[in-house]
Amino acid sequence: MLRPRLYLLGAAVLWSTAGAAIKLSTLNAFQLASGRSLIAALMLFLVFSDGRRRPTVRMLGVATAYAATVVLFIFANKLTTSANAIFLQDTAPLYVLLLSPLLLGERPSRGEWVAVPVFLLGLSLFFFDQLSSGQLQGNLVAMGSGVAFALTILGMRAASTEGSAILIWGNLLAGLSVLGPALQGPTPTLMDLGLLAFLGVFQLGMGYALFHRGLREVPAVETSLLVLLEPVLNPVWAFLVAGEQPGPWALLGGGIILLATAWRTLLGVRGSSATASKLPAQDKA
Question: What is the pTM of this model?
Answer without folding.
Answer: 0.78
